[in-house]
From TrEMBL:
<keyword id="KW-1133">Transmembrane helix</keyword>
<keyword id="KW-0812">Transmembrane</keyword>
<dbReference type="InterPro" id="IPR024232">
    <property type="entry name" value="SpoIIIAH"/>
</dbReference>
<protein>
    <submittedName>
        <fullName>Stage III sporulation protein AH</fullName>
    </submittedName>
</protein>
<keyword id="KW-0472">Membrane</keyword>
<dbReference type="Pfam" id="PF12685">
    <property type="entry name" value="SpoIIIAH"/>
</dbReference>
<feature type="transmembrane region" description="Helical">
    <location>
        <begin position="7"/>
        <end position="25"/>
    </location>
</feature>
<feature type="region of interest" description="Disordered">
    <location>
        <begin position="34"/>
        <end position="76"/>
    </location>
</feature>
<feature type="compositionally biased region" description="Basic and acidic residues">
    <location>
        <begin position="44"/>
        <end position="67"/>
    </location>
</feature>
<dbReference type="InterPro" id="IPR038503">
    <property type="entry name" value="SpoIIIAH_sf"/>
</dbReference>
Length: 197
């Protein structure tokens, strides 16, 4: 019994290390500090421009330049927020599926459950893994068509796709729908375009 507890503890810690490693490797290197650096560079450029026009009152120019740099930095921040939105949605989807898999694994490992229920639970786990793989393949295919980013969420008979792109059209949406139907079969597909900023 003690050996099983130690094994479970060890496997839990190893999986935690793997998850954290993947998380840190996939996250961009401090995007917020890049935004601050951009702001500082813009302010320095703006201050130099103000110094060149030293004949006029500097207060009004500085206020105008600061207003411009503030609006420009908001655009950059919203771009980061857009990327964070995709990441947050992906993590939420992964969390939901991992919780469902854990519940199904508990059912499969339970001794009080019939063999058919164990089989159904294992089949459902396999379906979830297969669905996640297909979603990743579809995301890769969409990105290979020149789109900046894509998020595919399949749930039952519905597939929701969010694509980040500058330009969109009905023809592009139809192309994505046909691609999804080719991979997942006849499912109801909804495509949403999110503009890049």
């Amino acid at each position: 019994m003690l050996l099983k507890k130690q094994t479970v503890w060890l496997l839990t810690m190893l999986s935690l290390v793997v998850v954290l490693s993947v998380y840190y490797m996939t996250t961009p290197e401090s995007p917020q500090s890049n935004v601050a650096v951009v702001d500082q560079q813009e302010e320095n450029t703006n201050k130099e421009a103000v110094k060149e026009d030293a004949k006029e009152p500097a207060k009004e120019d500085t206020k105008k330049e600061n207003a411009k740099s503030t609006t420009e930095s908001k655009t950059t921040v919203s771009n980061v927020e857009s990327d964070e939105l995709f990441t947050a949605l992906r993590l939420e989807l992964i969390d939901e599926r991992s919780k469902l898999k854990e519940e199904l694994q508990e059912v499969a490992a339970s001794k009080n459950v019939s063999a058919t229920e164990v089989s159904k639970a294992m089949d459902k786990i396999d379906q979830l893994s297969e669905l996640a793989e297909k979603e990743a393949v579809i995301e890769t295919l969409i990105k290979s068509k020149g789109y900046e980013d894509a998020l595919v969420r399949a749930d039952g008979s519905e597939v929701n796709i969010t694509v980040k792109t500058e330009k969109h059209s009905k023809a592009k949406a139809n192309e994505i729908i046909q691609l999804v139907k080719k991979e997942l079969g006849q499912k109801e597909v909804a495509v949403e375009f999110q503009p890049t900023k």
